[in-house]
């Protein structure tokens, strides 16, 4: 029986920056198609370094990363960057065209889509995030929550194997936060969500991985990890005041 390869496979990933700082000490992570996983950890834990390896912005000297069975190597980078959709913390890092429609078309056009198929892909992506009615507006005139959803659409338009979300709830008011959660839960896509927002991790991701000092220190059901007060305290993670499980 043919089984699909994991959406993401990280094996014994080691990485040191040029100044000698060892950011990753042999990270192993496997995410199956359709899984939603939160990546938790304090500042400086190595979360961003790990994410930058997933689409080849950084390449490690040792260990390996595969996306949908394809190794992250220089010769595969264009396809890897289509398969790994990174939604950055600041939407302004992703939105730079005069209109929402042009922003969302930019990625798939870059990968060779043109004409009606491109228009259909743009419409599908905007529809998926509830922004189809804003296609001709300038991103500059949207609210923070709307811009976050358009940034998500720019990535969805490339039909990625895995969505990587960097602090998706940051700077959002409670309504925008809830709306984004509903959109993300409705997508049915494989997700890796990097966040300090533990209640958001619980709401969106059945599984969580805690990374600290470049090592995976815990991997299990999100609720189980968040109930372990000693584990959270040891790795500088904290539930909001008054939040109960």
From TrEMBL:
The keyword Transmembrane does not apply. Pfam families: ABC_tran. Residues 8-238 form the ABC transporter domain. GO terms for molecular function: ATP binding. InterPro entries: AAA+_ATPase (IPR003593), ABC_transporter-like_ATP-bd (IPR003439), ABC_transporter-like_CS (IPR017871), ABC_transpr_CbiO/EcfA_su (IPR015856), ECF_ABC_transporter_ATP-bd (IPR050095), P-loop_NTPase (IPR027417). Keywords: ATP-binding, Nucleotide-binding, Transport. The keyword DNA-binding does not apply. Gene3D superfamilies: P-loop containing nucleotide triphosphate hydrolases (3.40.50.300). CDD domains: ABC_cobalt_CbiO_domain1 (cd03225). PANTHER family: ENERGY-COUPLING FACTOR TRANSPORTER ATP-BINDING PROTEIN ECFA1, HEAVY METAL TRANSPORTER. Belongs to the ABC transporter superfamily. This is ABC transporter ATP-binding protein. It comes from Pseudonocardia ailaonensis. The lineage of its organism: Bacteria, Bacillati, Actinomycetota, Actinomycetes, Pseudonocardiales.
């Amino acid at each position: 029986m043919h089984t699909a390869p994991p959406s993401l496979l990280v094996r014994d990933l080691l990485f040191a920056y040029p100044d000698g700082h060892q950011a990753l000490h042999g990270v192993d992570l496997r995410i199956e198609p359709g899984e939603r996983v939160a990546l938790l950890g304090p500042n400086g834990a190595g979360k961003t370094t790990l994410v930058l390896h997933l689409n080849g912005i950084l390449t490690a000297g040792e260990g390996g990363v595969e996306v949908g069975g394809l190794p992250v190597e220089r010769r595969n980078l264009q396809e890897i960057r289509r398969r790994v959709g990174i939604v950055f913390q600041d939407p302004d890092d992703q939105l730079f065209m005069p209109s929402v429609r042009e922003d969302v078309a930019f990625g798939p056009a870059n990968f060779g889509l043109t004409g009606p198929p491109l228009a259909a892909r743009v419409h599908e992506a905007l529809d998926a995030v509830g922004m189809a009615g804003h296609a001709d507006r300038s991103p500059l005139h949207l609210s923070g929550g709307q811009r976050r959803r358009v940034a998500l659409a720019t990535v969805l338009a490339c039909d990625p194997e895995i969505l990587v979300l960097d602090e998706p709830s940051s700077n959002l008011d409670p309504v925008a936060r809830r709306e984004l959660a509903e959109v993300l839960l409705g997508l049915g896509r494989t997700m890796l969500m990097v966040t300090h927002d533990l209640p958001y991790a619980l709401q969106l991701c059945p599984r969580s991985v805690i990374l600290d000092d470049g090592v995976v220190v815990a991997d299990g059901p999100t609720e189980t990890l968040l109930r372990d007060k000693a584990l959270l305290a040891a790795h500088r993670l904290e539930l909001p005041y008054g939040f109960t499980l």
